[in-house]
Amino acid sequence: MRLIENWFSERYSDNLQLSFRVKDQLLSIKTDYQRIDLFDTYDFGKLLSIDGTVQLTERDEYIYHEMITMLPYYFNTKPETALIIGGGDGGAAKRLLKLNFKNIVNAEIDRNVVEVSRKYFPEIASSFDDKRVKLIIGDGIKYIKNSNEKFDRIIIDSTDPVGPAEGLFSKEFYNDIKNHLTDGGIAVTQSGSPYYQEKALSLAYKGLSGVFSNVKTYLAFIPTYPSGLWSFTMASERAFKIRDENVINGTYFNKDILAGSFYLPEFVKKIII
Ligand code: AG3
Q: Which of 58, 155, 160, 193 should be mutated for ligand 1, with most atoms under 8 A from CB?
């Protein structure tokens, strides 16, 4: 029996945490914005954490990234342009490129996230080398305030609503987002675990509802995020309508998920009323 083992744990509450047994810690840096750690785990491959919270792992990143890009892709207008706010690992951009988006702007506040991803997740971060992707290192909130560009999709790929990402859950920001969407365009944000982060979901849902006429929350199973049950919330000025049911299958996403992810358990509905 091994007596000394290394574990990385994300704390969900005072009484619960999820631990990953790790082969090695590959990196730990403190940037101007946050602490970034990188672990080589036994079950999920490389794992990137920010301020102690799991951002992505090699094994299950596809679920989050497919769900934040592919699902909104099949609603309303056929999109060609997108703005990603956050997303410094390149995972969202990678999925948008697969969907043939022509023009993607990715605004990430912390250049270290991009650098770490380029080094440790080259297959994902290679999306930044594609000519269709323009990477901006800077504050997404300021970027959107100062730009007059419009996008078919705006993807808010943020961390939890504490620290640098707090403003990405505010009404003021959602209002700026609305002004940068093309006609029928859709904004989507990750909105936390309905089980452990009720506040993230209600901030996103209520904030977006204060600004947009149509708002919908959908769910996905993400094993490495708190409780495994994760929410996303999308918003548009146009009523949501699936524009094409002939979807390309992802590894998680498919036609059933396109329809079924909107069925919410009662306790989740209660958070967003
Ligand atoms: N960003 C959202 C992750 C939030 C996770 N929260 C947590 N583990 N407490 C994901 C970054 C992937 N592009």
A: 160
